[in-house]
Structure formats: structure tokens, C-alpha cells
Known about the structure:
Oligomer: heterodimer
Order of helices and strands of chain B: HEHEHHH
Bound molecules: iron/sulfur cluster
Helix content of chain B: 40-55%
Largest sheet of chain A: 4 strands, parallel
Amino acid sequence: MIVAERKTIPELVEILNGHKKILVLGCGTCVTVCLAGGEREVSIISSALRIASNIRKLDFEIEELTIERQCDNVFIEQATEAIERNDVVLSLGCGAGVQAIAERFLEKPVYAGLNTEFIGVLEERGIWTEKCAACGACVLHQYGGICPITRCAKHMLNGPCGGSREDRCEVRPDRPCAWQLIYQRLKGIGQLDRLKKIAPPKNWETSLDGGCRVIIREDHRI
Amino acid sequence: MKAFENGADGVLVAGCEEGSCHFSEGNFLAKRRVNYARQILAEAGFESERLRMVNLGAADPGIFVGLVEDMIKTVRELGPNPCKQADAAPEAMPEGITEQEIRP
Ligand code: SF4
Ligand code: SF4
């Protein structure tokens, strides 16, 4: 899932300052699961903004709404009336959600209330970790299912770098060395031989370096 | 958060004694949520001291009274909720609950 974190209330106040009728729009999918932008967070952030507005006399009028998914037309339609009756939208969706809303309401300022962080998993209660950088040409099969691009701080395809201490990454000692994990995992599944092959430089054109990506499925087009 | 938005001068969240919660760790989790709410209130420019969580046993009326008195003292020192002041012409700080009213 996509993992995000809320911006601070002073940051949001600065973004919204000068506007009156504000729709705080939540998303019921990834950002609900990572406790950043679901119905509950919409309620908490809206309350905080009303309190800040009262104290600083900013005159905010805040409406709250959460739709199932902000990156999907079918659900965006359900927010149309609320978006139209407000001056601006503070989206608590991920970056894709914010842009999906903005592209469909050309006259309306749409602001991001969250910082979209990464594609990851819930590791344990209250802890999320990054697992995938969406490189567009997955190499997980070669590394025992552990992504060297995302989880090695140096993105090394032929690691390790030699700087790890015990099993910790030298760049972030709070995180395990990805190459230690890759080695253990490949050993565990009897595929250590994979490490004898030198991986060629990765073609980053499938990633962001090749420009904004698009997928076209002719079999599904009308 | 809603209580403060609607003008409450203080909110005292009372949980069971630590270790004796019927929902096992419910009171510990509640304390974390209350701390998070205090952080957001502070970010909004609101005095986070107006929100407090205490833990005590169900059969501790004496302790409860002391904690409530302490909360009232904090709120009296802070004055009325600033949201109320911004909404309406400032009034004198209400006298609040008298000691007789909170004694069991
Ligand atoms: S190799 Fe690419 S697609 Fe696969 S997990 Fe890593 S970043 Fe994601
Ligand atoms: S210590 Fe391990 S994870 Fe960290 S940069 Fe080096 S190889 Fe990558």
C-alpha cells in the first residue's frame, strides 16, 4: 500500500491561509490503513484547523468528507457537490489522489494535506516500512524477494557495500543491511548461486528517469 | 478535540489503574492517543495542558477528587478556552465547580 504522513497543523494553516470555505477530503483506502488520511484523521485534522482558525481569527469554514478512493472517477463523482460548494479542497489522499481531484476540478485549488512517503507494509502496530520504489522492471526473483533498490541505502544490485556493522546498514543503523537479508534468504531457499552472477547496470528508463509513466491496455479500452 | 472545538475549558480523561484495565492494555493505548491529541492541540496553538489523562482505581474517590481539583486549578490559571474568547466577547472566567459539588 501507499504510506503517507500528515503535514503539521502550522503547515496546513499556512497553505490554507486566505481561504474561507474548505473541504477536508479523506480517502478510504491506503491512507486510511496507514492512519494518515481516513475518516478519523479527517475529523481530527478538521478539529485542529477549526481550533487554530478560532485562535488566529482566520475565518475557516471547514466541511468534512471521506470517499472510498480519491484516485478513481467513480468515487470522485460522489464528492462533486461538496467540492463545488467549497472554495478549496484539502486532500488527505496520496499524491495520486490529490492530482486526480485537481485534474477534474480545474477552477478549484486542491492542496495536499499529506506527505506521501512510500510503497510499503505495516511491519507491526504503528510501524510501516518501505518495500518497493516502483522501478518498473522488478528484479525481486534474483534477490530472494528482498528489494535491493528500495531496502539498500545505496541501491546496490551487486552488494554488499562492505560498510555494514553486524547486520545493520551503515547509512541507517536503525535498519537492517538489505544485503545481509538477501544473503540469508537466498541461503535459506538454496539459491546462493544467484549471487555469483554479476548484475548488469539497471536500465532506469522503466523508472521515473524515462519520464512520467503510462500503461495502456488495449484489451480493456473501449 | 470536538469538546475543545465546542468550547470546553478542560478535558480530563480518566482510565483504570495501570495494569487493572478490563480491556487489558486499553488504558495504555488511550494514554498514547491522548498524548497524540495533546501534540495536535499544541500544533494548533491551543494549550495542551487543558487535556489530561489520569489513571486511578474505581474505589478511589479521594484520589479522584484530588485529580479533579488539580485539573480545575490548571484550567482556572489558563482562563477560558481561547476558541470561546475568539467566538464571543470575552466573559469573566466562570467560577466552575465548587469544592462542595465535587466532594462525594
Ligand atoms: S525491484 Fe523494482 S518493482 Fe521490484 S520491489 Fe524493487 S523497486 Fe519494486
Ligand atoms: S550497509 Fe547494506 S543496506 Fe546499507 S548501504 Fe551497505 S549494502 Fe546497502
